[in-house]
User: Which sequence fits this backbone?
């Protein structure tokens, strides 16, 4: 794992209320371990098993201990700490870092950050941020929509109508996550989450119309920043020679980031309301997640009816 302090700061500055106290030009330093560390033992001079690859958090106890020392001892202990080449230091509770800490950080080119959060809360929030940044991710060609709490990713060849279908779904009251290119990330629970690229978020490309800004046209409720992926919908041009599934008994999946995601294939033909079909596919998948599979229930009814007829 290798995450720059700049990436961590950008991802955590809102949820952790992070700001740079000093060393802004050293934000390219790397975090190499996901957990955070409170360097109490290191400040007392014990460096065996010291996790120098982690973000070092200075809370109430660390600051109180440093203040109990003389200025000379503080500088010596902090120098020993920064000699370990730690990635960065975070001071919690909006406490301004001690002058000796800022001097040592500057000498060893280590950035110092500040947060208003109490120490335990900051550690919990920052750990989640780092886990998300370190999670496996990929870019996937497709448009993602939120349909009644279900994350649906539509894929298919260029010109098949993914964006137009998404536009029709937005008009029905659903929400856009991303258009054309989706960033997929697997979190610590194994779930796949989708979001848009920062540069294209809130925008869609409609052939013949150009680029549109979705929230301006349909309101802020028409967008979702991130959504769990529940279903992949493959759009393909209708092939009269191909036998498409007409029962729903055949379960399709697609492997994304080592996870199996349910999938359906929808043939696109003139006159078909694809937006409506995609909407129903999402609702049907939601029912399956709740344990209600219409195709299997009908199949079981038919089997029971045939069995009764055989025994009659």
Assistant:
């Amino acid at each position: 794992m290798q995450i720059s302090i700049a990436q961590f700061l950008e991802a955590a500055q809102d949820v952790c209320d992070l700001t740079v106290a000093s060393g802004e030009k050293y934000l390219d330093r790397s975090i190499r371990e996901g957990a955070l560390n409170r360097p109490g033992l290191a400040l007392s001079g014990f460096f065996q098993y010291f996790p120098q690859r982690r973000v070092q958090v200075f809370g109430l106890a660390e600051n109180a201990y440093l203040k109990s020392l003389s200025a000379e001892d503080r500088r010596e202990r902090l120098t020993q700490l920064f000699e370990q080449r730690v990635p960065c230091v975070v001071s919690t509770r909006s406490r301004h870092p001690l002058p000796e800490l800022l001097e040592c950080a500057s000498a060893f080119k280590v950035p110092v950050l500040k947060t208003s959060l109490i120490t335990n809360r900051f550690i919990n929030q920052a750990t989640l941020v780092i886990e998300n940044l370190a999670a496996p991710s990929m870019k996937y060609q497709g448009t993602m929509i939120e349909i009644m709490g279900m994350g649906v990713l539509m894929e298919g060849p260029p010109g098949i109508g993914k964006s137009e279908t998404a536009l029709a779904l937005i008009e029905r009251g659903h929400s856009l996550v991303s258009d054309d290119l989706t960033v997929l990330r697997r979190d610590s629970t194994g779930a796949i989450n989708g979001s848009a690229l920062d540069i294209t978020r809130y925008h869609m490309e409609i052939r013949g119309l150009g680029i549109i800004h979705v929230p301006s046209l349909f309101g802020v409720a028409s967008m979702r920043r991130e959504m769990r992926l529940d279903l992949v919908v493959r759009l393909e041009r209708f092939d009269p020679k191909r036998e498409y599934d007409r029962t729903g008994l055949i379960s399709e999946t697609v492997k994304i980031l080592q996870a199996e995601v349910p999938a359906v294939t929808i043939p696109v033909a003139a006159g078909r309301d694809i937006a409506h079909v995609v909407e129903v596919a999402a609702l049907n998948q939601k029912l399956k997640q709740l344990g209600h599979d219409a195709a299997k229930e009908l199949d079981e009814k038919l089997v029971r009816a045939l069995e009764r007829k055989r025994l009659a």
